[in-house]
Amino acid sequence: MFVLRQCLTLGTKSSIRNFSATTNLVNLTINEDTGVAIMELNKPPVNSLNYELLEAMHRTLVKLENEKCPGMILTSSSRSTFSAGLDLLEMYKPTVDKARRFWSMLQNTWIKLYSTPYPTVAAINGHSPAGGCLLAMSCEHRIMVPDKMIGLNETQLGIVAPQWFQDCMRNIIGERQAEKALIAGRMFTSEEALKIGLVDELATDKEDLMQKAHDFLDEQMGLPPLARSVVKVGFRKDTLSKLINGREADIKMFLDNVFQPKVQESLENYIQMLKKK
Ligand SMILES: CCCCCCC/C=C/C(=O)SCCNC(=O)CCNC(=O)[C@H](O)C(C)(C)COP(=O)(O)OP(=O)(O)OC[C@H]1O[C@@H](n2cnc3c(N)ncnc32)[C@H](O)[C@@H]1OP(=O)(O)O
C-alpha cells in the first residue's frame, strides 16, 4: 500500500502527491494491487463540512475519476463521528458571497459523489447527521458500526433539508418512511437504520467495517464496469438532473432561507447548545 496525502492548501497536480505538514483534510490511500481508494475525511473533531473540506473532497473525486478508480471507500478519521454534516459556522451570519460559494461547492461535491461511475461504499464509523447522512446516502452501499446515530435531522434544527437531500433518502428507504423521517427530523440508531434499509449492513468494529467494505467492492469490481455504471447512473439520473438543471434556483433557496432572522436565531441557539455540551 502507498499513501497519497492530499493537502488542501496545495494547488498544482504535482504537489498533491507530496506529504505535507499542514492539515490534510482528506487522506487518500490507494491500494497498489487493487486500485481501491480509501477516502478518509480528516477534519477534527467531527468532520463538519465547511468550504475547504468540501473542496478537498471535490478535488479528490475529480482525481479518482480521472485516474479511472475501480472503487472507493468513504470513511472518517474521527473516533466518534463520520461527519457532523454541514459546518454550522458556514451558515451563521455569512456574507452573501461566502454563502453562495459554500452552497455551490456543496452542490459540486454532491454531484460528483452521487454520479461516480465506479462503485462507492460508505464505511460509517461514527455519527452521521444531516449532511453526513447525505454523504453516506450518496454512496452505493452503507455499512455502519453499532450504537451510532444517522439521519436527516434538519427539521429539529428549525431548517429544511433541501429537495435533493430528501430525494436521496426517498430513493433509499421509500416514500412513506422518508416522509415520516424527514418531517420529524428523525435520527436513527445504527440498528434502526439497518431495519429500515437506510444502511445495508452493520459491522462489529472498524476492522470488520473495512473488511465488509472491501468485500462489497470486490463483488462490484467483478462486474463489467461499463454496464454497471450505466445502470447506476440511469437509476440516479432523475435525482441528479433535478439539481443540475436547477442549481441556481437551489442556491437562491439556500440564500433566501439562510438570511431569515428565525433561521439565524435557530442556528445561534444550536451552536451555543453544542458548545455548552
Ligand atoms: C439555513 C438554510 C437551510 C439550508 C439547509 C441546510 C441543510 C443542513 C444540513 C446540515 O448538515 S446542518 C448540520 C447538522 N448537524 C448536526 O446537527 C450535528 C451537530 N453535532 C452533533 O450532534 C455532535 O457534535 C456529534 C456529531 C454527534 C458529535 O458529538 P461529540 O460529542 O463527539 O462532539 P461535540 O462535542 O458535540 O462537538 C465537537 C465540536 O464540534 C462542534 N460541532 C459539532 N457539529 C458541528 C457542525 N455541524 N458544524 C460546526 N461545528 C460543529 C461542536 O460545537 C464542538 O465544538 P467545540 O465546543 O469543541 O468548539
From TrEMBL:
Reaction equations catalysed: (3Z)-decenoyl-CoA = (2E)-decenoyl-CoA; (3Z)-octenoyl-CoA = (2E)-octenoyl-CoA; (2E)-tetradecenoyl-CoA = (3Z)-tetradecenoyl-CoA; (3Z)-dodecenoyl-CoA = (2E)-dodecenoyl-CoA
Location of this chain's protein in the cell: Mitochondrion matrix
Gene3D superfamilies for this protein: 2-enoyl-CoA Hydratase, Chain A, domain 1, 6.10.250.170
UniProt keyword Transcription present: no
Main location: mitochondrion
Coiled-coil regions listed in the entry: none
Pfam families assigned: ECH_1 (PF00378)
UniProt xrefs under InterPro entries: ClpP/crotonase-like_dom_sf, Enoyl-CoA_hydra/iso
Record pathway: Lipid metabolism; fatty acid beta-oxidation
MF terms (GO), sorted A to Z: delta(3)-delta(2)-enoyl-CoA isomerase activity
Example GO biological process: fatty acid beta-oxidation
Keywords: Acetylation, Fatty acid metabolism, Isomerase, Lipid metabolism, Mitochondrion, Transit peptide
CDD domains: crotonase-like
GO annotations of cellular component type: mitochondrial matrix
Function in brief: Key enzyme of fatty acid beta-oxidation. Able to isomerize both 3-cis (3Z) and 3-trans (3E) double bonds into the 2-trans (2E) form in a range of enoyl-CoA species, with a preference for (3Z)-enoyl-CoAs over (3E)-enoyl-CoAs. The catalytic efficiency of this enzyme is not affected by the fatty acyl chain length.
Subunit annotation: Homotrimer.
Protein's UniProt name: Enoyl-CoA delta isomerase 1, mitochondrial
